[in-house]
């Protein structure tokens, strides 16, 4: 075994265990052309996703707010076992020439993870993709269908899945997020 791989392996096992790895490097899907970050800001509800170890609850939503230094305050929440849980992170535009490619981190010690907006109309829905290459041998990815409301028409979700598939992103395991009973007091 390659010595550098054996040093990295203990850090990769939790990531690998949480997701289904795919052979080869990450796909390079096209992102939203002429993306307007300010229009994207605000509250987004998770409608469908590739299962993620870090998202186990229901009523998952994320609120994006611009900060004075042009970074993004990212507050994600979910209801898990009857309890509202929130986590705050930071987002950045990694390349000013390509503002639809964001990076987000929820820890000062972890690097930014890709958070690419593949498409959005800003007022109804957005398709987001994240992928991490592991030594270019395999990749682990995440995909989300987001909405400004807690529901989307089935036809919109079907079109979203088609967009992911056409970008070489396997969404065969995509599941609906649970957004029922979220507006009740906990």
SS elements, strand count: 10
Please give the alpha-carbon distance between the first and last residues: 51 Å
Number of helices: 3
SSE run: HEHEEEEEEEEHE
Output the CATH homologous superfamily.
Calycin beta-barrel core domain
Q: Which architecture name does CATH use?
A: Beta Barrel
As a whole number of angstroms, the C-alpha radius of gyration is: 17 Å
Question: Can you tag this structure with a few keywords?
Answer:
186 residues, Lipocalin, 8-stranded antiparallel barrel, 10 strands, globular
How would you describe this protein?
- The protein is α+β, with helices and mostly antiparallel strands.
- It has a single domain, classed as Lipocalin (Beta Barrel), CATH 2.40.128.20.
- Strands 2-3-4-5-6-7-8-9 form an eight-stranded antiparallel barrel.
- A hairpin with a 5-residue loop joins strand 3 and strand 4.
- The longest helix is centred in the first third of the chain and has 16 residues.
Layout of secondary structure:
Elements: H1 3-18, E1 22-23, H2 37-40, E2 42-49, E3 58-66, E4 72-80, E5 83-93, E6 101-105, E7 113-120, E8 125-134, E9 138-147, H3 154-166, E10 175-176
Antiparallel strand pairs: 1-9, 2-3, 2-9, 2-10, 3-4, 4-5, 5-6, 6-7, 7-8, 8-9
At a glance:
This protein is of the alpha+beta class and 186 residues long.
């Amino acid at each position: 075994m390659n010595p550098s791989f054996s040093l990295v392996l203990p850090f990769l096992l939790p990531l690998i265990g949480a997701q289904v790895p795919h052979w080869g490097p990450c796909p390079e899907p096209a992102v939203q052309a002429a993306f307007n970050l300010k229009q994207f800001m605000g509250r987004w509800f998770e409608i469908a996703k590739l299962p993620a170890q870090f998202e186990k609850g229901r009523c998952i939503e994320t609120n994006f707010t611009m900060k004075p230094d042009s970074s993004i305050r990212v507050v994600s929440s979910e209801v898990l076992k009857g309890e509202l849980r929130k986590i705050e992170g930071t987002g950045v535009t990694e390349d000013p020439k390509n503002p639809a490619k964001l990076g987000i981190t929820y820890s000062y010690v972890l690097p930014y993870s890709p958070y690419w907006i593949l498409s959005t109309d800003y007022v109804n829905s957005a398709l987001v993709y994240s992928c991490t290459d592991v030594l270019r041998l395999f990749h682990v990815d995440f995909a989300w269908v987001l909405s400004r409301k807690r529901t989307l028409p089935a036809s919109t979700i079907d079109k979203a899945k088609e967009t992911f598939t056409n970008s070489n992103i396997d969404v065969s395991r995509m599941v609906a997020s649970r957004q029922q009973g979220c507006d009740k007091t906990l």
